[in-house]
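This part of the workshop introduces the protein records we will be handling. A record pairs a protein's sequence with a compact description of its fold. Comparing a sequence with its tokens is the quickest way to learn the format. The record below serves as our worked example for the rest of this section:
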Amino acid sequence: MPASDQHPEYRKYSPRWAMVRDCVSGSDEVKSKGTDYLPQPNPIDRSEENKARYRDYVQRASFINFTGSTLDGLLGMVFRRAPVFDIAPPLQYLEYNATGSGITLAQTTRSAISQVLQCGRLGLLVDYPQAPDNLSAAEVSSLDLAAHILPYKAETVVNWQTTVIAGRRVLSMVVLREDFNIASDDGFSYEVKPYHRVLKLEDGFYVQCLYNNENEIVERSEPRMSNGARWAEIPFIFVGAANNDELIDKAPLYDIASTNISHYRNSADFEESSFIVGQPTPVFAGLTQSWVDDVLKGGVLLGSRTAVLLPESASASLLQADPNSMPQSGMKEKELQMVKIGARIIESASGNETAEAARMRYAGQTSKLAIVVANVEEALELCMEWCAMFMGSIGENEITINREYYDKRVDPQVIMAELALYDRGLIASTDLRANLRASGRLAEDRTDEDIDAEAEITEIL
């Protein structure tokens, strides 16, 4: 079989990923897909007139990007506080260049969470560039080679296999599609050709093979650790919305995107109906042909500064259709459905909201988000462990991503009540300050000793 063969689950889920991606990209991308998302009202009619009508039908439709707004809102909730990296000195270069292309570890973290929210899946490969065999140790050292974390979107991980080794299920093969730009002879234009990088275990050891689009091996390598030992595992991990295994998880944004497309279709019908019957139509009764030709001159001007002359016993009126509320009702229903699914970003809470009410309102949304964040955190820490094995680094590496997704503001009445408890000696100042730190009213890096010292200075002044 060719290296480009796709896993059955990949073929099943890739259309869903495409829909979420298109929705996140926005109106232009969705509309460019034509009948993929907006069926033609009369597909049997293949006339040019009907094709032009369909183009107008698409143009008038309104796609409101609830999906993209929800993604932005979720990422904003996570990154309202920057992630914290505790990295051993030999690997601290990852914080500024995690991917080898100048992308920082913070940016890689944000991108990873975004990818998993959109597709429920992401691949992370730790790779180390191999130096040519004919170089001396000094020459190899001068190359300043380093291990990096390479992200692969769900669409580029086209095939995979697992094997049970010593009672543990491990990845035995992963196929990654990579697009290479092949330059033309003139040096200006280029052709994009897909290559497939196959990561596999051969005789229990990790091997990389690069296949061209003719299914020929153009590159083969046997990656090794810093001590020269070969890898007994593939340094690749799937990041999922539920688990970090090879099984494809449902994308957290899929239901919102699906409802978003349905809302778009309702909008198209509503706008079409408004265009066709929304304008009032003048109706005249009792006119003769000679009156039309001689007085009205074959046309009628409507407006407050014009007058329409009619013969005796003739009449005029405006014909206007009743509102077609069904598509509009469908749009409102879809908006409510998206709110229930989790697109809370499109519904603003009215009035003052307590911390507990906010916690309950976002509970379903943040529970899925918390799982995604934990999975990304776990996967990146494992990748840094693999980087350490490539580099011969020693030391603990840890990533801490924000878990507080909403502003835990404290009701002023609660603060007054706690002050009363403090005055009565029922709680200590340390308890009061701990609550203020948890609510964000007091900076976390301000210790009790710092506050007491500042208070003493204030009293002296």
About this structure: Residues 363-391 form the longest helix (29 residues). Confidence is low (pLDDT under 50) at residues 135-140, 344-355. The longest strand covers residues 168-183.
